[in-house]
Amino acid sequence: MADRIERDSRRFKKVVRGHIKKNLRKYMSQREMIGRRGRDAVSIPVPQIELPRFKFGRKQTGGVGQGEGEPGTPLGPAEGEQSSGEAGNQPGQHILEVELTFEELAELMAEELELPNIEPKGKKTIVSEKDRYTGIRRVGPESLRHFKRTYKEALKRQMAAGTYNPDNPRIVPIREDKRYRSWNVKHEPESNAVIIYMMDVSGSMGDEQKEMVRLTAFWIDTWLKHQYESIERRYIVHDAAAKEVDEHTFYHLRESGGTLISSAYTLCNKLIDEEYDPEEWNIYPLHFSDGDNWGGDDTRKCMDILREGLLPKSNMFAYGQVRSYYGSGEFIADLDAAFPVEEKVVLAEIPDRDGIYDTIRAFLGKGR
Predict the structure, then answer these.
(1) How far apart are the C-alpha atoms of 199 and 189, rounded to whole Å?
(2) What span, in angstroms and rounded, lies between the C-alpha atoms of 97 and 103?
(3) pLDDT at 306 over 90
(4) What's the pTM?
């Protein structure tokens, strides 16, 4: 019975996994997933999933399958037929909450979006300590007692003493026979990453545009957590001037005024220089805007900062342009013209929530 339950459980998990993978594009555009996010897992609402099985109806209710039947007998209720309006006594359809770890969610992303693993840089000076059970010793807690080693020591002792009886091979360990697993602290190089989110918060960036940025950031975080030991996030907002803020302010701040994108790139470059050595950190600057910038002079300044500052220090620079009724949408074309063959520059347009799926694939598909 236990094996059957375990087999059915694995089968059910496989069905759920296939359903989520098939509908991943839809889940990527839903804000509810972020609301269901816990510390180590996220809950995904999966409606009407059950294992295939035979389902028996009520007896003697007529219709095909009960008696001989007549040509033209309907398979279900007649068209327009309604219930009597009385309260029912049968359970309704329920939505199942399936909890996935971020690791499982990242694996589904990798399979569906065909994402390559990232080859991190910067494993020279960042070191973590991990315990490894690599040795055997004579003392230790019973929870770490090594059964096979203890048995062998007891067997050798009894054979040497002549007390071992092959016809009655009873092995009784004594204190001197017991062996315990021991551990050593192993120092391992570790790769860290920092994501620097930058966003235009001028009046043309509305709540819906910020929500698309938030959803995109959630999936980027999920993938990079899967690739790196630890992740740091920094947040920069800008209109005509840039400043660093916390995560809540990043997604809820709304300002007005002009837009000078170079202010954000200047602050980002300064942050990297002061706190993140490119030899030790994997650096991901991500900028989101509606493509509106104040004048060609500032756009040229942006390209100079990217070319001389941000790109040499970063694994990748990603720019996502959300569609706005008020933004000009020219900046993505300016970036494309300035860096037509630069592999570190990844550009994506996000016209609506359905575009988040393709944006994630564009940003993460190069494995940088």
Answers:
(1) 33
(2) 18
(3) yes
(4) 0.62
